[in-house]
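Shape is hard to put into words, and the shape of a protein is harder than most. The fold becomes a row of whole numbers, each drawn from a learned catalogue of backbone shapes. The outcome of that step, for a single protein, is printed below.
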Amino acid sequence: MTATTCIEKLATRRRRHRPAHRPYEALGRNQAVFSAEARIRTDRAGRYLTQLCGHTARVSDLPHDHRRDEGTAMAIPRRAECSGTDGVIEFDRGRCALRATGEELVLLAEADDQRHLRLMQDAIAARVQRIGRRDQLSLTWRPEPVAPGRPGAGIQAIIGQLMTPAGRDDPFPLYAVLHEVGPVSALSNDSFVICGYAAVNQVLRDPGFGLAVDPVSPGSGSDTVRLMNQSILRANPPDHGRMRSLISKVFTPRRVAELRPAIEAAVDDLLAQFSEATRGGTTDFMDRIAFPLPVTVICELLGVPPVDRQRFRPLAADLTGALELSGDTSPAVEAAARELAGYFAPLIRHRQTEPGDDLISALVAARDAGDGRLSDEELLANLILLLVAGFETTTNLLGNGLAILLDRPGLTAALRAGHVPIAGFIEEILRYDSPVQAVTRRAHRDGLTIESVPVPEGSDLILLIGAANRDPARYHDPDRFDPTRTDIRPLSFGAGAHICIGNNLARLEAAVAFPKLLNRFPDLSAASDRTALRRDRLVLRGYQTLPVQAAPREPR
């Protein structure tokens, strides 16, 4: 079965009502079957195998009315038998194979999704502890390594589809399939995909999980990787807290609120230019509003001269390729990193002799204080990443939000009339079509679990932010855009210690821009002669072009 066929079959199964019980034999061996292995060190392995199968066989004779719900039913075995050194315990949605050797009892549990695998693991573990009370038996489950046609292969196929142009363009059907499988999926013994809202939120906030930083020696490897490793984007404690404390002073709620008049003035100026452009017919919202607004704001904060700002868009587009799951370090990405470093180096020297009221000057002063708070490399890296991150996500937020409005004229009217609060609209954009779709983490200590799944130290995790924001366990009807939802808490800007330092600024820019745009252009619509084009990215999701047309009116 091909990866595409596997995904289509799972998606079809999602659209149907599942039967209450399905025999394990019905599972195709090439479907997304999940497994975990446990090994119990004991010289009585054969005896315990016989006892475990015998005890389980007696449990399976319980009357059917003891099965109060699907979870309880899953923990009740259908059949158990053993012969010599081998045994099997079958459940409605999985099975556990057993093998006894002279030194250990090996258990291999398999089920058709992660939830039922965990239920089955818990049931077997409880029985092992019961029959092995005298020897104090216990067991720890580990995900089984992935092999073609074996557990996890279906998850690999889904991730493979996400990495294709079609998957990057519309990842949401694939996210829905992952939710059917479970909130945590093992790709191998030491790699996992996390799609559940609660699971992603846990990992983002748990200090046991951190950034995956692979050191690069000076003079070798990728300039881009070395650059990012020196910034707060890839820093772990204590370096992350040290650098963040210097930068965050510019992004406090009070300082951000004080920027509102400047942002309003910038929006008014851009809308005036946008109005002139639309008189000639079709114009690109990304070029005229979505890019220049956030780049103007972040450059003002940093202290970048206005004459230089237009050059950053192609450089940022190239550099952010390194943030994709593929970790692009192509020549274009490397060239962008070097050009940005070459731009900021003389600007840093200039601020050293002629400081101003901007972030570059503040960070230069921190470096020159000589107290170890900031090194030369960290200063340069953080300025570049602040510039790029400072407008990339906001640009995508504005573009994704307008695309949603263009498809929903009723919502546009409700926003313009004030029937839908702008704050709720922005939070729903972030949830429904997040500017950031995925991040990565690494387990930095042993003994960690996510949704009861053990995660060994050193394991790499892919956190699918976009999937978590559409988790049906967290949001009712998650594929419907509804700005009137209550308790919208998207994970688009992260959570915990690494939450995006400029998230309040991005929200403020959107809160100013959208009402002014809708007031000035009451009949704004998608262009009839040109088609919108998404960027071919998964991690940073947004539009390359978003052509629109409108007849402007004078602002009130």
